[in-house]
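Researcher: Let's do a round of design. I'm pasting the structure tokens now; please hold your answer until I've finished.
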């Protein structure tokens, strides 16, 4: 039985009952991932000065969602989600260990970076959908918002405030160190998940002869039939196109446009993570005051202003401050989005609906990454940030049906 406590009039998940171990696994894994994601753009930039090629590494890191995301959701609704998660983490540990060896031997070229990004995300399509579907088995419905906020806050703290500032020092110790550390965190996360004694959520029996294709179609249909999730998915897709452009070229914006080195880049992504941590503490309270839909609208509006500031004021301090607020509101958006999907999905369909939402939303990210690289090559290092601002503004406008 999942346990909760009451704090400030709202239910929050108790650390016992499995949530604590699930939280620890997510935080440890994000710490390692952040070491890798902070180091990879710097490695790519050291291998080529072509912004479009650098952005392609990010694009390959999202492309598998288009190919396998829906399938991952259907599989997550069929299998033991806990076992799927730890098995995937062990596979990712093996990939990262091999990549660390290649980097140490000086054999990691751009082609290997592209393959690695594609392979890791292919495995992630199953892991993320299984994790989303497993959480309601560990946490009661009334505590989902608090659980999502705690997960997001812990991941942002470990990934941004702890991991990102360590990257320059780890790279001094050796170019392969961040990737070896990432492999180790996957192993630890797998052990934590395997220790859970919570089973998968109860599922209604599948009709005889049901196929993965038919079950995937059911998830898409359920998403489309829910007005709130439908419009939220459309807005998130537009934002992810902008995020693709921003993430893929942020290293170019900071190192070329602002003329700073790896330290400036680390400061920018650390500010983003610090803002994300603060947003995790306040996301539930903001939603209680405004409602979930209005909280998402507020977050998108403020994020648009942050991007405009970054693109028009070419100072490191402006970008660091803007990214801190951007990260704060990004957490507010993500917590409400995840909770709405979990709350509004019928029993036994959460994996498929979450996969349909995530696949459609993530579909814009590789496109945005390529557009961002092309914009930086054609119009300069600040152009992708302004393009992202325009896309976020469109996303805010598309949220109007949720408010009226």
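Researcher: That's everything. Go ahead.
Model: Designed sequence:
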């Amino acid at each position: 039985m999942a346990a909760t406590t009451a704090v400030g009039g709202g239910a929050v998940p108790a650390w016992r009952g499995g949530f604590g171990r699930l939280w620890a696994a997510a935080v440890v894994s994000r710490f390692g991932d952040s070491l890798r994601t902070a180091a990879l753009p710097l490695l790519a930039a050291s291998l080529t000065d072509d912004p479009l090629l650098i952005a392609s590494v990010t694009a390959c890191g999202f492309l598998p969602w288009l190919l396998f995301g829906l399938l991952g959701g259907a599989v997550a609704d069929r299998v033991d989600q806990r076992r799927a998660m730890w098995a995937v983490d062990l596979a990712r540990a093996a990939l990262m260990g091999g990549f660390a060896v290649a980097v140490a031997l000086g054999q990691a070229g751009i082609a290997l970076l592209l393959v690695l990004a594609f392979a890791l995300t292919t495995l992630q399509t199953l892991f993320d959908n299984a994790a989303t579907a497993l959480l309601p088995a560990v946490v009661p419905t009334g505590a989902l918002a608090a659980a999502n906020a705690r997960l997001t806050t812990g991941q942002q703290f470990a990934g941004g405030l702890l991991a990102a500032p360590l990257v320059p020092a780890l790279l001094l110790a050796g170019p392969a160190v961040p990737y070896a550390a990432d492999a180790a965190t996957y192993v630890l996360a797998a052990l934590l998940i395997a220790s859970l004694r919570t089973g998968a959520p109860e599922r209604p029996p599948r009709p005889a002869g049901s196929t993965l294709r038919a079950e995937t179609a059911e998830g898409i249909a359920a998403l489309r039939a829910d007005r709130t999730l439908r419009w939220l998915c459309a807005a998130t897709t537009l934002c992810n196109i902008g995020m693709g452009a921003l993430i893929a070229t942020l290293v170019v914006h900071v190192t070329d446009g602002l003329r700073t080195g790896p330290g400036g880049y680390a400061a920018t992504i650390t500010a983003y993570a610090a803002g994300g941590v603060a947003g995790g503490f306040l996301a539930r309270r903001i939603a209680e005051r405004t409602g979930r839909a209005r909280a998402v609208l507020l977050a998108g509006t403020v994020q648009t202003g942050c991007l405009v500031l970054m693109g028009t004021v070419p100072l490191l301090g402006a970008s660091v401050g803007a990214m801190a607020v951007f990260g704060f509101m990004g957490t507010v958006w993500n917590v409400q989005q995840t909770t709405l999907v979990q709350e509004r999905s019928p029993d036994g369909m959460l994996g498929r609906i979450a996969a349909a939402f995530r696949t459609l939303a993530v579909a814009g990210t590789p496109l945005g990454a390529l557009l961002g690289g092309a914009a930086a090559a054609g119009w300069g290092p600040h152009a992708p940030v302004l393009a992202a601002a325009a896309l976020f503004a469109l996303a805010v406008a598309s949220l109007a049906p949720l408010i009226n």
